Amino acid sequence: MTPVLYLVIPCYNEEQVLPLTSGKFKSKLDELAEAGKISGESRVMFVNDGSKDSTWDILSSLCDEDPRYCAISLSRNRGHQNALIAGLMEAKEHADITISMDCDGQDDINAIGQMVDEYAKGNEIVFGVRNDRSTDTWFKRTTAQSYYKFLKGMGVDIIPDHADYRLMSSRVLDALEGYGEVNLFLRGIIPQLGFKQSVVYYSRAEREAGTTHYPLSKMASLAIDGVTSFSVRPLRMITLLGLLVAFLSFVGIIYVLVSVFTGYYVDGWASTTCIICFVSGIQMISLGVIGEYVGKIYLETKHRPRYIVSERLNIPEK
User: Fold this and answer.
1) 268: pLDDT confidence band, cut at 50, 70 and 90?
2) What angle do CA 151, 155, 157 make, to 5 degrees?
3) CA 318 → CA 23, 37, 72, 223, distances in Å?
4) In what side-by-side order are the strands of the sheet with 309-313?
5) Per DSSP, what are the bridge partners of residue 312?
6) Are 84 and 10 in contact (CB under 8 A)?
7) pLDDT digit string (tens) for 153-164?
8) Across the strands, what pairs with 100?
9) pTM for the predicted model, two decimal places
């Protein structure tokens, strides 16, 4: 029996790129269906993440034109990860497999067929991994490589050069539903789920239109979420740093006492100021890291919904 595939595509202010990429997504489904790899009931599901432009109007028109398009709209902007989980949880009720990808056309749609082939071999999670970063600027390439090394160094189980282009079976999505945390970092959660996994390599293209909605500031925020959601290593580093500073302070006290008793004692404001500034800086950094974890705990204990779906278009009956 051929599987029902849903492409889950988050959208935020994508009015420029949607007319260019939506047809390509549907054409790929048609191609795979004609080849007998997926069911004709497969769909392209868009998730409108509180867009402020005409994205939802475009999606509404697409759904009116063809029932193979479906869409949900979140009540407000909730961020890429929450929009993605909203689409996945919506799709899992109707699909045997889902493939999540970006709307901008940078993810190679030809890799979809390879992912479906890997699923047919028994793999329930298939990661789309970039085979090179030749299309990136030197700055983007360097920061991305540093980003993955940093997360690995902090003990986060993550696949380098993999974003959110992946195939997951309905069984995997059922397991993913059990992860109820508000601070989502799917790139770290998915590898932890287990199940049989494989990788498909692809070349990432240039964005077809518009501008990226993932600047350096959002990447930095995602990196912090990744570390604080999956590792307590920063807290342990603070502990070790505190022990080191305490040891150095103890040595300094001994040095001062010896200097006083031997009569070699010179008042010096510079050294005192340096020590105070150093210790104060360490304290502020430590409080910032601890505060980040406390903030995460605060958000988790509220148990607020990660998203609210305000509208649905062409979603099949359960």
Assistant:
1) low
2) 75
3) 26, 23, 15, 37
4) 197-202, 125-130, 162-169, 97-100, 5-11, 43-48, 69-74, 309-313
5) 72
6) yes
7) 766 677 777 878
8) 8, 166
9) 0.74
